[in-house]
Amino acid sequence: MKQYYKLLLLVGLLISGASCKKYLDVTPDNTGTLEYAFRNRNEAENYLFTCYATLQQFYDPTSNVGFTTSSEIIYPNNLTNKPLNENGFNLIRGAQNSSNPGVNWWDGENGGQALFRSLRRCNIFLENIDKAFDLTPAEKARWVAEVKFLKAYYHYYLCRLYGPVPLIKTNVDISAATEEVRVKRAPVDSVFNYCVQLLDEAIPNLPPVITNQAKELGRITQLTALSIKAEMLATQASPLFNGNPDYASMKNKDGQLLFSTIADPQKWKRAADAAKAAIDACTANGLKLYTFVSPPTVGTLSDELRAELTIQNTVTEKWDQNPELIWALNPTFPCQGYATPRLTPKSAVNIFSNPSTFAVPISTQELFYTANGVPVNEDKNFDYANRYALKTAGDADKYLIAKGYTTINEHFGRETRFYANIAFDGAIWYGNGIYNQDQAYHVEARGNTSLAGPKDRNTLNITGYWPKKLANYLSVYDDGFQPIEFHLPLMRLAGLYLLYAEALNEVGGPTAEVYDYIDRVRARAGLKGVVESWSTYSKNPNKPTSKEGLRDIIHRERRIELCFEAQSGWDLRRWKEIQQVLSVPMQGWNIYETEPGNYYRPNTVMTPVFGLRNYFWPIKDYDLTVNNNLVQTTYW
């Protein structure tokens, strides 16, 4: 009876996936019993991939709050057409509620996936895998390890959203008493510790890397598990979870406290050790920071464009040719058309090929450093007060800004990552089918008569900035859109370096090793080291010499390096900084104006709404009625 019940539950809850690799998105057909589902290796492998199926749904950035609430992208909510699920973007407009939560990963509604169902699937696999008689011990050990990773990751994802969540270590028997079915929240430290325990059990039996890429790319490796373990521990050590006074009173109905009341600095030591172990494993297996290598189709490149393509291609390079990529999902990034401006007359006619509606606010472009490697408002050689004054590009700027084009001071003299990440009015857009750098396209965004300017309510960019990093330079938008697909990284080596630097700084403050790992990332971006840059160019030259100052620098480095990669929203939450970031209006330019003097005037396009209660999701009111052992998230 127990087995039949579980099978019926499974069949009813399996979701269809969007993976480009069918082997990671399989639902068994005509399955009558669990004995059949695990009767042999082939059927058991199919069931393994049903455990992966939910993971493949994480590819959609519109359901990832690390992307939609990062302050990096504004998506207009007044479009006539609704091509995207807007729930995630509307969260920073104050749309969250407990009656019908947006991006609900608890129940699988409004853009979220039902992760508790996924956990039940994982448990069914672990309970029944021994029934596959022709499975070799090595295969069984690996598959069990993969499912343990998935269990850990699904719990971790829930914890980042909801804080304390129930631990689904085993499935509840159908004959269990009602009270056993009504699970309660576990303390956040218990959740993190259980996730790490699962990863520690899994890591020895996972392959270091995928060798059979044609058949297995996308499956979990040791490097994936080691790196995610480091991220988990850094999240547990961060202020949102580590002695957070805002949730000190949150407890279960039996009085059990759900958050630690005192910050434990040793959690940062665990995170640092885990990050170093992950880095060492990556190095031993040949991973390194990506550098662009020109294909035969690309002609001579200036130093500026080559450096820019190195940064842009850390994300958009082919999976099997990117030595920096630690983990990505099989489905490709689905929103290139939202990040690409119109560059040609034919694209302006075919406006419905690409909505171009992912708009970057002025605050995000100002996040990036000057060419001197310090913030624009700290650089003593940068005229910050006149950053919006008009300036015309000359010959020295022609590979970054169109020669003779008038834009603003703030678009000149910026670091490489600025030009690789963001397209703006007058910016060079290398690629799009043209690989002669002297004939490269540039963005024209002023007024509705310009190529990239607003044409109608559905194909406009409301700030005048595009997230260029999310478009492959080989994709072509002309007479229609021909995208060259890529996989958005979930973890890459530069992010792991900065995670290690962050944890080390929290453990012991600035050291040579902390500087080294930050500077490795900065050097790839063409910048001098942190200490040299601040001492030479900053109005605050001693900032990197204190733990607090270096913490601020590391946080900014992560936001710059991982911009648009669905990481910053999670980081800002765990640091308890997102409320500050979203406390100011989000601005763009006057996109309907054609004259530079009128266009380049900051215009508020959205005022975010984010309060203390928005750090964690509410549980749906109905769920609290069904299970009276659950307590609502504090402030909801």
TrEMBL record:
<feature type="domain" description="SusD-like N-terminal">
    <location>
        <begin position="100"/>
        <end position="225"/>
    </location>
</feature>
<keyword id="KW-0472">Membrane</keyword>
<keyword id="KW-0732">Signal</keyword>
<keyword id="KW-0998">Cell outer membrane</keyword>
<dbReference type="InterPro" id="IPR011990">
    <property type="entry name" value="TPR-like_helical_dom_sf"/>
</dbReference>
<dbReference type="Pfam" id="PF14322">
    <property type="entry name" value="SusD-like_3"/>
</dbReference>
<dbReference type="GO" id="GO:0009279">
    <property type="term" value="C:cell outer membrane"/>
</dbReference>
<comment type="similarity">
    <text>Belongs to the SusD family.</text>
</comment>
<feature type="signal peptide">
    <location>
        <begin position="1"/>
        <end position="21"/>
    </location>
</feature>
<dbReference type="Pfam" id="PF07980">
    <property type="entry name" value="SusD_RagB"/>
</dbReference>
<dbReference type="InterPro" id="IPR033985">
    <property type="entry name" value="SusD-like_N"/>
</dbReference>
<protein>
    <submittedName>
        <fullName>Putative outer membrane starch-binding protein</fullName>
    </submittedName>
</protein>
<dbReference type="InterPro" id="IPR012944">
    <property type="entry name" value="SusD_RagB_dom"/>
</dbReference>
<feature type="domain" description="RagB/SusD">
    <location>
        <begin position="357"/>
        <end position="636"/>
    </location>
</feature>
